[in-house]
Design a protein that fits this description.
CNF1/YfiH-like putative cysteine hydrolases; five-stranded mixed sheet; alpha/beta; 21% helix; 256 residues; globular
Amino acid sequence: MKLIPWSCFDEIEAYTTCAYDENHQPMNMSYHGDDDALVLKNRQALAQLLNTDLNHMVATFQKHTTNFIEVTANDGGRGMLSREDAFDNYDAMYTRDPELWLWTFHADCCPVLLYCRDQKIVAAIHSGWKGTVGEIVGKVTKHLIENEHCDCQHIYAYIGPSIDQRNFEAKDDIIDLVKQMSFDTSSFYTKKEDGAYLLNSKGLIKKQLELLGVPQTNITISPYCTIENNDLFFSYRKEKTNHRNITLIKLKQPQK
């Protein structure tokens, strides 16, 4: 199993899973419309690779909302054996508890990870176009600043593998919502000759972070596009697949 790391600081670990193993077998991580036993096997293999178990991992049942939730070590294992016990209707999680892996599923949508270094908080966010226009990343970040006392100068962000602007065609229904966001978005879409637009979703997410005071130097944007790099990632737009990659993060146990 291949993992693409976000190398930020030694006190966290973060990766994106790749779509296929060395034998080109799909490493789907989502129970959505697939063989549940195979998905569970893939999840167990991932846990073993990361020297942990499924009781130290947690997932939500994502529904393109802007809802988020704080989770703790007591929530470990939720959403791992099935979707029935996952936190329903949440698209982001954060925790202060070490050794708890937070998952976010994606196949073109933007996975976003946050690390608040001063407060030792990690977050995993699913930002599809609905979450992006709803400013889920900004909402989570603002909550961490205002309610968890995170200093914006010490927040680090990773915008993971997702669809790039050159491949993200959107029509007026989406662009009309983009225009209603809380900041000037005109530089984040360009109109094509056929009347459709190319939308810079990663840029819209980055702007949400910057407007809350997160330094540009603290924001890492993955160079991978899930449409173009579909040898590495599942792409819903290209393949209409139910398969999903995950991007995940944990805070390490402090060294004694």
